[in-house]
Amino acid sequence: MPRIGRVDVGNQIYHVINRANARVQIFDNDDDYKLFESILEEATERFDMRLLAYCIMPNHFHLILYPKKDGDLSKFMGWLTNTHTRRWHTIKRTIGQGHLYQGRYKSFLCQKDNYLLTLLRYVEQNAKKAKLVQKSENWKWSSLWRREKGTIKQKKILSPWPIDAPKDYLSLVNQIQNIEEEDNIEGSIIKSNPYGDLDWVENIIKKFGLEQTLKGVGRPKNGG
């Protein structure tokens, strides 16, 4: 299935992923995670980026971004990854020893409703799913930890969600995700498809002039 072109328009929600080159571990200790978070804080302020959620894993990271203007996504991500690469190599004393990331970041549009809520859960429970922690909110290098346990200053990096969070969200994010929901998100990642219901996906492709064969893109059943 052909991959869709890259979209970079404002007031759309994006699931963004980047992985380490050869999927090696690049976050080895607390200082490595703190370095990335400090750069993430700089980037959100520099580009006035709305950060809805994030999770930093040992060899990759997930971001859910809500840029305000056309072109903001690529500017933000370009500065974030290039700055992190330079500072990481400087600290590790490995300048000139190759790429830190496997390539350009991947980004996927997401529908603003129950699909976004499902995606937020997926990202924020990443560490629990990988068995790095017993409860999702205990993974310090995530937006969930910041919202639940961070200081007022630490919470400032996060923007309000464009949807209402359910009162039992913390319980939901610690539950095993519905297999079909998870498959739909991972299918979006693998095929570089927008994540939402079929009508919305078709509309997005037409709206932004994206060329893609829709064969094999099913209609998720988790809302929308």
SSE layout and pairings?
Elements: E1 13-19, H1 30-46, E2 51-57, E3 60-65, H2 72-92, E4 106-110, H3 114-124, H4 126-129, H5 143-149, H6 152-155, H7 169-172, H8 179-191, H9 198-207
Antiparallel strand pairs: 1-3, 1-4, 2-3
Helix pairs in contact: 1-2
Specify the biggest β-sheet. Answer: 4 strands, antiparallel
According to DSSP, the number of beta strands is 4
Oligomer: single chain
Helix-strand topology string: EHEEHEHHHHHHH
- Nearest-integer average pLDDT: 89
**Molecular shape:** globular
Counting structural domains, the number is 1
Query: Per CATH, which architecture?
Result: 2-Layer Sandwich
> Measured on Cα atoms, how large is the radius of gyration?
17 Å
The CATH first-level class comes to Alpha Beta
Gap from first CA to last CA: 24 Å
Structural class: alpha+beta
Helix run count:
9
What is the CATH homologous superfamily assignment? Transposase IS200-like
What fraction of the residues are assigned to beta strands by DSSP?
5-15%
CATH topology: Alpha-Beta Plaits
| Helicity range | 40-55%
Poorly predicted runs: 212-224
Strand order of the largest sheet: 2-3-1-4
